Amino acid sequence: MAAETDHAAIERRLEYFLVAAGLVMAVISAIGWGIRAGVGAAAGTAICWLNFRWLRQGAAALVELGRAQAGVEKVHVPKKVHAKFIGRVALLLLAAYAMLVWLHLPAVAVLCGLVAVVPAVVLEAGYELILGEHRWKTQ
């Protein structure tokens, strides 16, 4: 049970770090390359956050299905779960297309926002290293 709580805390911090990294990228982009670049980075970050959140929810649903059907010979995954996974990707691609083609936001700025999860993971790793070091010293 404690492991699940730790995982939930990590996922929550990852979301916070993702938003923080995206905001920093958006501000730096706006200062360095103009407001459109800042908007592009912010929009890409929003899509990245939404993707992370939907992927996490979908994975959690699959884990629950697996637990509920443990020991069953033929596992049934509802079509709704498949539709959500495919729909998530389709919606994200459509949003990226709209940002680049219709809104004419800078592609590099949007791409930076779309990969905001990378600095979020690095921040979380640093947090865990520092916290892990602190836990080790206090034991």
| H/I helix tally | 5
Mean pLDDT: 87
**Total DSSP E strands:** 0
What overall geometry do the principal axes of the alpha carbons give? flat
Uncertain regions spanning at least 5 consecutive residues: none
Number of domains: 1
Helix-strand category: mainly alpha
Q: Which percent band covers the strand fraction?
A: under 5%
| Proportion of residues in helical segments | over 70%
Q: What is the terminal separation in angstroms?
A: 21 Å
Rg from Cα:
19 Å
Largest sheet: none
- SSE series: HHHHH
Structure described in brief:
The protein has 139 residues and is mostly helical. Helices cover 86% and strands 0% of the residues. The protein has one domain (2-134).
Core attributes:
mainly alpha, 139 residues, flat
